[in-house]
Amino acid sequence: MNITILGGGGFLGRKIAERLAASGKLGGRAVASLVLFDLAPPAPLEAAFPVHCIGGDIAALPAEAVPEGTDVVFHLAAVVSAAAEADYDLGRRVNLRGIDAVVDICRALARPPRVVFTSSVASFSGGQSAHLADDARQLPANSYGAQKAAAELILSDASRRGFLDAVNLRLPTIAIRPGAPNKAASSFISSMLREPLLGLATTLPVDEDFRVWIASPAHAVAWLLHSAEIDTASLGADRSITPPGLSASVGAMLDAMEQVRPGTRALVTAAPDPVVADIVGSWPASFAAARAPGLGYIRHGGLVALVEEFIARDLQATRALRNL
Ligand SMILES: NC(=O)c1ccc[n+]([C@@H]2O[C@H](COP(=O)([O-])OP(=O)(O)OC[C@H]3O[C@@H](n4cnc5c(N)ncnc54)[C@H](O)[C@@H]3O)[C@@H](O)[C@H]2O)c1
């Protein structure tokens, strides 16, 4: 299989690439080549197949990023939530013009590739009291969410036309994110666990009973890889899937951390931030996600497993990255 990851230098893009390099396969089929595309050329990756690392702008996607014969495109390149809200022009260019570029490059190919697109919980609103059905209406409360919802429609229509074969995966907030805090409004959801697990103090911008819809990086990667394999004929016109994430309160997440690493909860102090609470507070806290398990998407584990996953897979690398 010939695979391209757009946004291949980012958090989830890199994790997908590492999984492909480790297994050499996607589903039952061997990987023949991999392109990693990002603003700057992604770091080289050791694999049993050729890996091409290319730098450039998604809105002016070069043909070499999605060459003839590409079977699967993971499209993850994006300006994330708070950054897209702070800079409307940048968010619109990358998150919308980038989609146009993906459609155009795919329709130039002889065979339409599978496109796995990372949409987001942020394409919905409803807030803390929401428990949304799979076919709930997308009423985004910020520009990032609007751009994701629009991208879903454009990719679904391009699928109907036979230009490509899209699966739009509406990812929950992914936690625990390794590395350092970023510009996503949801960054605190990872920081409040990651920083104490590193032995560092951190602040909490929302109340402890604030609920979030989350998933671990390993679940996100498993769902993304699965999206490359499913039979899209069974999706009909509805190309968008809400995977079965986890609805949890911030307090329950801190409790799980304390259970795994006693003493860490004391490193978290309250520091209300109305801007963050406004953005993240508009996202639904829970989804029914009734369709995905029937399509083979694995269900999420509990909070203790989520904390343990970070310790086992990402804590050491994060320490090294931040010289801790
Ligand atoms: N991580 C989450 O919690 C989460 C939740 C829901 C949806 N998503 C979506 O999943 C995808 C991956 O998320 P992530 O956490 O890995 O984000 P990330 O920011 O780590 O990765 C996104 C990548 O896109 C690249 N990019 C930005 N502008 C670009 C441009 N003009 N041209 C080329 N590349 C560009 C960035 O350099 C970055 O490496 C994104 O589309 C994001 O919106 C993420």
Brief summary:
With 324 residues, this protein is an alpha/beta fold.
Description:
The protein has 324 residues and is an alpha/beta fold. It has two domains: 2-123 and 132-172 and 216-241, NAD(P)-binding Rossmann-like Domain (Rossmann fold, 3-Layer(aba) Sandwich), CATH 3.40.50.720; 187-212 and 246-289 and 296-321, UDP-galactose 4-epimerase, domain 1. The protein is 36% helix and 18% strand. The chain has helices spanning 11-23, 81-86, 88-107, 143-160, 187-197, 217-227, 250-260, 274-282, 303-313, 315-321; strands spanning 2-6, 25-26, 29-30, 33-38, 51-55, 72-75, 114-120, 165-171, 173-174, 202-204, 211-215, 240-241, 246-249, 268-270. The protein has a seven-stranded parallel beta sheet, sandwiched between helices. Strands 9-11-13 form a three-stranded mixed beta sheet. The protein is globular, with a radius of gyration of 19 Å. The mean pLDDT is 96. Nicotinamide-adenine-dinucleotide is lined by residues 7, 9-13, 38-39, 57-59, 76-80, 94, 118, 120, 171, 173-174, 186.
| Share of helical residues | 25-40%
Tell me which CATH architecture of the largest domain applies here. 3-Layer(aba) Sandwich
Ligand catalogue:
nicotinamide-adenine-dinucleotide
For the biggest sheet, the summary is:
7 strands, parallel
What's the helix-strand series? Answer: EHEEEEEHHEHEEHEEHEEHEHHH
What structural class is derived from the secondary structure elements?
alpha/beta
The end-to-end span amounts to 39 Å
CATH superfamily of the largest domain: NAD(P)-binding Rossmann-like Domain
**If helices are DSSP runs of H or I spanning 4 or more residues, what is the number of helices?**
10
Radius of gyration: 19 Å
Number of strands: 14
Contiguous low-pLDDT stretches (5 residues minimum) are: none
Q: Any idea of the CATH topology of the largest domain?
A: Rossmann fold
Q: Mean of residue pLDDT?
A: 96
CATH level-1 class of the largest domain: Alpha Beta
